[in-house]
Amino acid sequence: MKNIEILKRLYKNYTKKYLKKIIFSVFLSLIVAGSTSSIAWLLDPAIKKIFIEKDQTLILIIPILIIVAFATKGLSLYFAKVTMIGVGEEVKKDVTLIADCSSSPRLKGIFNSMKNQFKKE
After folding, report:
1. Is residue 55 situated within a structural domain?
2. Which residues contact 107 (CB under 8 A, 6 or more apart)?
């Protein structure tokens, strides 16, 4: 079996089922990256305007935006990790079930009956 055939099989059997969750996790990871850069972008004016220039107009706005950026980063990172860990556990469950069924004819029959029972329509 060639490498490309193996990759196609792995995509079809394991990745394709969880593609929506993987894309959602990538989207959350982009939010993490954006919020991380926004923190750095907000800290520069906070130091310049509030501490050096003693500008009181931004004394509430910048700290609130920094808190929002940190909260967004934390929540996005948490849900991205939870989603990907869940996908990994489901794939591990599928691989284990297939490996067990291939070694036991009795489990293979149970697995096939369950597979037909829970088919998506």
Report:
1. yes
2. 100, 101
Confidence of residue 51 (pLDDT cuts 50, 70, 90): confident
Number of Cβ within a 10 Å radius of residue 27: 12
Number of domains in the chain: 1
Return the residue matching tokens 């910048």.
Answer: 62
Are residues 21 and 87 in contact, defined by beta-carbon separation less than 8 angstroms? yes
Do residues 107 and 101 lie in contact, with contact meaning Cβ atoms separated by under 8 Å?
A: yes
What tokens were used for 96? 């284990």
Give the domain extent around 76: 15-117
pLDDT at 108 over 70: no
Residue 81 region by backbone torsions, left for phi larger than 0, else alpha for psi between -120 and 50, else beta: alpha
Please say whether the dihedral angle defined by the alpha carbons of residues 81, 85, 88 and 90, taken in this order, is positive or negative. negative
